[in-house]
Specification:
172 residues; mainly beta; Elongation Factor Tu (Ef-tu), domain 3; SH3 type barrels; six-stranded mixed beta sheet; 5% helix; elongated
Length: 172
């Protein structure tokens, strides 16, 4: 399951919810007739509940959405804090040089000199740009690095090889 965002609050009295997206193109979600919700972002596939999207609007820096199965504010309040996800095959294809966060998690990060810096454990949205959270594991140095996910530092992403090459030194 690719995690797309999180419900942060109910919105109004007719069952709508406010959503904080974890990416920069939530408008594309409108094309998905079903969304999947779970209490944890790492929940097993069987724990994700499929809901039918019945309303969608961009709202400020996030969006608001309504589901056929959520008739009122009480039902919307019960979803507060739930994560929104979708199976990879239900998502629109990303454009060239665009990636879903879930596709980047677990990739090995190596710098220009071939030093392994660790693996991507998650991403952080800072507003200006996303940041790779790289955890140095066994055989590396155990250091967590925060690397801006911008062209100046991220030189190449190879999803097939599960590898990211960066302009970043091991001692930064």
């Amino acid at each position: 399951m690719i995690v797309l965002g999180r419900i942060v609050a109910p919105f109004g009295v007719q069952g709508w919810v406010k959503v904080r997206p974890f990416g920069d193109d939530p408008a594309a979600w409108k094309k998905m007739p079903h969304w999947w919700l779970a209490e944890r972002d790492d929940a097993p596939h069987a724990q994700w509940k499929q809901l039918t999207l019945s309303g969608f609007r961009l709202h400020g820096k996030g969006l608001v959405a309504a589901f056929r199965e959520v008739p009122d504010r009480n039902a919307a309040e019960a979803l507060d804090g739930y994560f929104i996800g979708a199976p990879r095959e239900a998502l629109p294809q990303p454009a060239a040089d665009e990636y879903y966060w879930g596709d980047l998690v677990g990739l090995t990060v190596e710098n220009e000199t071939g030093e392994v810096l660790g693996t991507v454990s998650s991403l952080i949205s800072t507003g200006a740009h996303d940041v790779l959270q790289v955890q140095g594991g066994e055989g590396v140095d155990g250091v967590e690095r925060l690397i801006p996910f911008v062209a100046a530092y991220v030189l190449n992403v190879d999803l097939d090889a599960r590898h990211i090459r960066v302009a970043w030194e091991k001692d930064w």
